[in-house]
Amino acid sequence: MNFTPTPLADVWLIEPVRHNDARGYFCETFRRDVFERAIGRHVDFVQENESLSSRGVVRGLHYQAGAASQAKLVRVSEGAIVDVAVDLRVGSPTFGRHICVELSEDNGRMLFIPRGFAHGFAVLSERARFQYKVDNYYCPGAERTLRPDDASVGIEWPFAADEMLLSDKDRRGVSWDECEKFTY
After folding, report:
1. What is the set of active-site residues?
2. Which of 60, 64, 75 is nearest to 14 (CA)?
3. In what order do the strands lie in the sheet with 72-78?
4. What is the DSSP letter of 51?
5. Cα 171 from Cα 163, distance rounded (Å)
6. What is the C-alpha separation between 4 and 14, in angstroms, rounded?
7. Chain segment 47-62, per-residue pLDDT in tens
8. Given the DSSP bridges, would you call strands 89-90 and 182-183 parallel, antiparallel or unpaired?
């Protein structure tokens, strides 16, 4: 696997090495010893989730507050998305900044997002199957949403705000000024 630091502190772009032949390919998508050596920290993933979404769906920007915060290792096994991470860690050198990375079944890339970030994605293909490991169990009472179209964050989504297919929860998300922040 190839690990590349992103412009956001502690966020990593990971590219598994695919071994191709006439049948298709094989690759390792996670190996704890290689992963932890590359990112320089221990991460204990305890839950894995999957979602299936259609073109135009924007999910997020989600995070869990306080002790329920989650680090995520995200990937796409079908289709293509633009994945977004927003640094909510006060004191971080990249506090308030975000990145957008295309993840797809074709490029096989993954993104590691540590605790203290809001996360979301927009579906570019007709449908996308999105999978992610987390290092803390889901806690409904700690779930938070930062509005994906908040101008203060300034994300350039691939769809106009009125074209985004959002859940009611995501439409009701809070602004940057209202969202809970973390200590870095």
Report:
1. 62, 132
2. 75
3. 2-5, 12-15, 110-113, 72-78, 127-134, 47-54
4. E
5. 13
6. 6
7. 999 999 999 999 999 9
8. parallel
